[in-house]
Amino acid sequence: MFTKRLGAAAALVVLFCSVAQASAPTAPARPAAVAHEKHVEINQAIDALDKARWHLQHASHDFGGHRVEAIGAIDAALNQLHMALRYDR
């Protein structure tokens, strides 16, 4: 059930980000990952989710509560990714 919800939330993120990019200022960028850094893909995913979260927070509509639920799903995904990085230490 969680996976199905997360998939739906990811689809909403893509939709909202494409709408938000047309009208919103650019999301603040984090420093680029060092080329030799471990787990570059996870760090890139964290960056992408951070940007998606920013766009959703600055969206002009509520979308019937789905925007807030998508932000919650992003927060859960970010939490999992940060735990994965800590696990590898």
Q: Would you kindly provide a written description of the structure presented here, covering whatever features stand out?
A:
The chain has 89 residues and is mostly helical. The protein has one domain. 70% of the residues lie in helices and 0% in strands. It has three helices and no strands. The chain has helices spanning 2-23, 40-57, 66-87. Helix 1 packs across helix 3 (66-87). The longest helix has 22 residues, at 2-23. It is elongated, with a radius of gyration of 14 Å. The mean pLDDT is 78.
Core attributes:
mainly alpha, 89 residues
Layout: helices, strands, pairs:
Elements: H1 2-23, H2 40-57, H3 66-87
Helix content: 55-70%
What's the total number of strands? 0
Q: Which outline best applies?
A: elongated
Main pleated sheet: none
> What is the radius of gyration?
14 Å
Domains, number: 1
Rounded average pLDDT: 78
Distance between the termini: 30 Å
Class from helix and strand fractions = mainly alpha
Low-confidence stretches: none
Give the gist of this structure.
By secondary structure, the chain is mainly alpha-helical. It has helices spanning about 1-25, 40-55, 65-85.
